[in-house]
Design goal:
binds calcium ion, 461 residues, alpha/beta, binds uridine-diphosphate-N-acetylglucosamine, 9 helices, 9-stranded parallel β-sheet, UDP N-Acetylglucosamine Acyltransferase, domain 1, 2 domains, Spore Coat Polysaccharide Biosynthesis Protein SpsA, Chain A
């Protein structure tokens, strides 16, 4: 079968978002809405993808520079028809075009493919993807004569009678390239918005005796356009449900799926149980048999099998099999936790590796450290990694034991099997199997209480 070029219109102002960010960069399930549209076009096997950019063109191009798409600029936003016109050079040589709008992230590749098959089979000048909406407000209405589409009327330009039509224009079309560009030349901007509407090519093609057909889809979710933040949140809800349902079908338990946020590319293994209020973002991978209890946020991290995490924050980190994290741990970027490690409550770790079987059970800060296997870090131990100018590294070797409330002033190394007495502030390395004590020695002043009493109260008691 012949192929097609996809043109995605993404230059619009997005005024209704009331945002400093270009509309198509607003995210749905972790990725910009334009990303989802590009992704669907790719999966539908577009030969080439052209994106028309305008508002925030620099930012949009930067966000998608590695996606293998071509950009064309619509310097001034004069409407969807004018936007497509900007792609004329870029699409030269392709017989069929599929036009998509950048603000419809829910569109499925399969729907694009079916539209294309229909178009190729029937060979009209244009096929419009339509849908029946209970509430068609804001969408262009499809004006039909039996099978044929004779016009698309925008909400703002529609008569009262036309507003009653429930069949809407999704904003996805398949065009014969030559015919659409020749019709576009004739589009005028004498409408309520003063714009060159792409939708007007339908009437123009009809007037030239060309055929325009509708390809109607059942699933209204897919063709929701996003113009404001209410619609953005609805799209998030729909896509979120799909993502979580797909995971559930692969054997992941969600106790309360509605309360969880799981980004599109997250992977989770079988028999992992996700409790309410868990947020899993970015390129995160979670293994099998894990338990994740809310309120936990995991971002761009890799979690092994049989891991238990509760009420913790984990970003750009790696956690080995059988580890137990939290409640209330904060694992910052660059943390690598090996197998069977225990990280307890109120522990903050950054840019550090923690060896197998090590325990950091309570109230510690560990920064820029390399900790070996089976080390015990007592409650309240602080790794003093910053001198006000630079960060320094701490090394704690296997089986070392760091007593409670110690400060390890980096750079410093505690050798294998060494002990550090509680309350020490260490500035020197500790040799293997030695005990380091670095605190004022205790003195007991016998009879002190009685002497003091005499001083203030006089006489014996
Ligand atoms: C558009 C359709 C409407 C359809 C609806 C579906 C037109 C005239 N109307 O209305 O029939 O029911 O989408 O969601 O096409 N854009 C540009 N350059 C511009 C203007 C817009 O690239 O000058 C892009 C926008 O970035 C957006 C898309 O085109 O991705 C649609 O524009 P938008 O303003 O959202 O159109 P709607 O009013 O929603
Ligand atoms: Ca829109």
């Amino acid at each position: 079968m012949a192929g097609f070029t996809a043109v995605i219109l993404a230059a619009g102002e997005g005024t209704r978002m009331k945002s400093g960010i270009p509309k198509v960069l607003h995210k749905v399930c972790g990725y910009p809405m334009l990303f989802h549209v590009i992704n669907s076009a790719k999966k539908a096997k577009a030969d080439k993808i052209v994106v028309v950019v305008g508002k925030g063109a620099g930012e949009v191009k930067k966000a998608f520079q590695d996606e293998g798409v071509e950009f064309v600029l619509q310097a001034e936003q004069k409407g969807t028809g004018h936007a497509l016109l900007q792609a004329k050079e870029a699409v030269k040589g392709s017989e069929n075009l599929i036009v998509l709008y950048g603000d419809m992230p829910l569109i499925e590749p399969d729907t694009i493919e079916r539209l294309f098959e229909f178009h190729i089979e029937r060979q009209p000048a244009a096929t419009v993807l339509t849908c029946i909406f209970d509430n068609p407000y804001g969408y262009g209405r499809i004006i039909r004569e039996n099978e044929k589409v004779i016009a698309i009327r925008e909400e703002k330009d529609a008569s009262e009678e036309e507003k009653l039509i429930k069949e809407i224009n999704s904003g996805i079309y398949c065009f014969n390239t030559e015919k659409v560009f020749s019709a576009l030349k004739k589009v005028r901007n004498d409408n309520r918005q003063g714009e060159y509407y792409l939708t007007d090519v339908v009437e123009i093609l009809n007037s030239e005796g060309e055929e325009v057909l509708a390809f109607k889809v059942e699933n209204s979710d897919e063709v929701q356009g996003i113009n404001d933040r209410v619609q953005l949140s609805k799209a998030q809800t729909i896509m979120q449900r799909k993502i979580i349902e797909a995971l559930m079908k692969e054997g992941v338990t969600f106790i309360n799926p509605e309360s969880c946020v799981v980004d599109m590319r997250v992977k989770i293994g079988r028999d992992t149980v996700i409790y309410p209020n868990v947020v899993i973002e970015g390129e995160t991978e979670i293994g099998e048999n894990c338990t994740i209890v809310g309120n936990t946020v995991i971002r761009n991290s890799k979690i092994g099998n049989n891991v238990e995490i509760s009420a913790s924050f984990i970003a750009e980190s790696e956690i080995g099999d059988g580890a137990k994290i939290g409640p209330f741990a904060n694992l910052r970027p660059g943390t690598k936790i090996c197998k069977n490690v225990k990280i307890g409550d109120f522990v903050e770790i950054k840019n550090s590796s923690i060896g197998e079987g090590t325990k950091v059970p309570h109230l510690s800060y560990i920064g820029d450290a390399e900790i070996g296997e089976k080390v015990n870090i007592g409650a309240g131990v602080i790794f003093v990694n910053y001198d006000g100018y630079k960060k320094h590294k701490t090394v704690v070797k296997d089986k070392a034991f760091i007593g409670c409330n110690s400060n390890l002033i980096a750079p410093i190394t505690v050798e294998e099997g060494a002990y550090v007495a509680a309350g020490s502030t260490l500035t020197k390395d500790v040799p293997s199997k030695a005990l380091a004590i670095a605190r004022a020695m205790q003195e007991n002043k016998l009879g002190w209480v009685e002497k003091r009493k005499k001083l203030f109260e006089g006489g014996e008691n």
